[in-house]
């Protein structure tokens, strides 16, 4: 293991945070239990006082094929998975395009687009050296109960990368804001949409400092330039409070606040 300083105002997708020391884990390391693991920081909001952090080094960034299985290291960015699948005519990973992050982050969040979710195509996950079949993992909408750090995952190989599916998914996502964000701020409650509720309580487009509930899609908290953690947290708490008052529903954050 070694220490690397990561500037979260540049590294995180929402461009909030400061230079912070992160422990980089290598293949042979024993994984510390007192540190929070991050992936590509596309679903994170880093405070001025985050917990001690760690990250998988490039030792965990590989793709290999064995018989009918594809094994992917958890540090691999989603973009690389899609280009590998395309090049080798493998089906099932089309939805990972434009879903920013690493495989590890996708597994932990059961990330997905519409009906396509990573757990749909998953076979098993390597958690701290032990392979665990999907059937033995509890998972649901934007959630998976991993018993530790995912270092790799296996997928049954299926032939037939679909260019059409890729194109239609890419088209789908054009209603998302282009300003820096961490994706959806809240999970959708059952039978409703967090974005609709944020709109209903009048917060679509509402701004504090340089942070804003996006005009394009209200469930995206966007950074218009110099947005801070405090501004973001203020807007999150404000939306939760207003929505609770109006709908009696307590929204759950999808983004992880560190
Ligand atoms: C513009 C934009 C659009 C987005 N659209 C979508 C969308 O449509 N659907 C969707 O599902 N998400 C979406 N997201 C969110 C994001 O893409 C996913 O949550 C992604 O999986 C995050 O991956 P990451 O590597 O950046 O994880 P991080 O943000 O770094 O971490 C997220 C969580 O995963 C955990 N984690 C990371 N690596 C591992 C590991 N190896 N083992 C165990 N836990 C781990 C972290 O501890 C943390 O709890 C969007 C984000 C952005 C910025």
Please bin the fraction of helical residues: 10-25%
The counted number of beta strands is 19
**Oligomeric grouping of the chains:** single chain
SSE run: EHEEEEEEHHEEHEEEEEHEHEEEHE
- Shape annotation: globular
Low-confidence segments, ≥5 residues, pLDDT <50? none
Plain-language structure description:
It is a single chain. The strands form six sheets. The chain has a five-stranded antiparallel β-sheet with strand order 6-7-14-10-11. Strands 1-2-5-3 form a four-stranded mixed β-sheet. It starts with a strand and ends with a strand. It is built from seven helices and 19 strands. β8 and β9 form a beta hairpin. It has 258 residues and is α+β, with helices and mostly antiparallel strands. 24% of the residues lie in helices and 28% in strands. The protein binds flavin-adenine dinucleotide (FAD). Flavin-adenine dinucleotide binds next to β3, α3, β8 and β15.
Secondary structure layout plus pairing:
Elements: E1 2-7, H1 8-11, E2 19-25, E3 36-38, E4 44-45, E5 53-56, E6 63-66, E7 69-73, H2 78-87, H3 103-109, E8 112-113, E9 116-117, H4 118-121, E10 122-127, E11 130-133, E12 138-140, E13 143-145, E14 150-156, H5 163-172, E15 181-184, H6 194-200, E16 207-208, E17 211-213, E18 220-223, H7 229-247, E19 256-257
Parallel strand pairs: 2-5, 3-5, 4-19
Antiparallel strand pairs: 1-2, 6-7, 7-14, 8-9, 10-11, 10-14, 12-13, 15-18, 16-17, 17-18
The structure holds flavin-adenine dinucleotide.
Comma- or semicolon-separated keywords:
single chain, alpha+beta, 5-stranded antiparallel beta sheet, 7 helices, 19 strands, globular, binds flavin-adenine dinucleotide
């Amino acid at each position: 293991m070694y220490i690397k300083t990561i500037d979260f105002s540049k590294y995180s997708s929402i461009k909030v945070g400061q230079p912070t020391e992160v422990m980089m884990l290598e293949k042979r390391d024993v994984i510390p239990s007192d540190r929070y693991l991050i992936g590509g920081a596309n679903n994170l909001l880093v405070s001025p006082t985050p917990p001690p952090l760690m990250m998988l080094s490039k030792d965990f960034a590989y793709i290999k094929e064995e018989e009918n299985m594809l094994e992917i290291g958890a540090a691999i960015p989603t973009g690389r998975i899609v280009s590998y699948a395309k090049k080798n005519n493998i089906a099932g990973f089309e939805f990972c395009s434009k879903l920013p992050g690493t495989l590890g982050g996708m597994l932990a969040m059961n990330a997905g687009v519409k009906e396509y979710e990573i757990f749909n195509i998953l076979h098993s996950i390597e958690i701290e050296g032990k392979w665990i079949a999907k059937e033995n993992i509890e998972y649901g909408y934007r959630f998976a109960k991993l018993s530790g750090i995912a270092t790799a995952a296996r997928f049954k190989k299926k032939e037939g990368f679909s260019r059409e599916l890729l194109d239609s998914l890419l088209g789908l996502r054009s209603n998302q804001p282009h300003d820096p964000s961490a994706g959806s701020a809240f999970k959708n409650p059952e039978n409703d949409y967090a974005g609709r509720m944020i709109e209903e309580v009048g917060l679509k487009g509402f701004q504090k400092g340089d942070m804003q509930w996006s005009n394009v899609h209200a469930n995206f908290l966007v950074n218009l330039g110099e947005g801070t953690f405090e501004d973001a947290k203020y807007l999150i708490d404000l939306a939760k409070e207003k929505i609770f008052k109006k709908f009696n529903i307590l929204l759950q954050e999808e983004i992880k606040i560190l």
